[in-house]
User: What shape does this take?
Amino acid sequence: MKIAISSAGAELNSQVDQRFGRCSYFLIVDVETNNFEVYPNSAASASNGAGIEAAKNLVKKGIKAIISGNIGPNAFQILQAEGIEVVQEFKGTVNEAVKIFKEGNYSKASSPNVNTHSGLRR
Assistant: This one.
């Protein structure tokens, strides 16, 4: 099973990025093999709709879950419609995120935890 984690860096010891749509990278981890792919987030520089674009790109990658800090309503709706589990408000490293997922030590989100455009840097 493949999961995606929003990441500030390209390594497993990188911090989970609190921004979903504007994170620098997604690390896509196969939780059975521990193999991972570094996926630069091309949506991060979008003038608007970054969360929507990031969600659509991840759907194409065949992930079954996403772990991030914050996910807005538009991205959340896309992920939920595709049956992708959303884990939000996670703080720590990508390795720690994978561990909590493998252990089942997380709560699946039932709604977004931030408003639209909250990831913009002003």
About this structure: The chain has one domain: 2-103. The two ends are 37 Å apart (CA to CA). Residues 50-60 form the longest helix (11 residues).
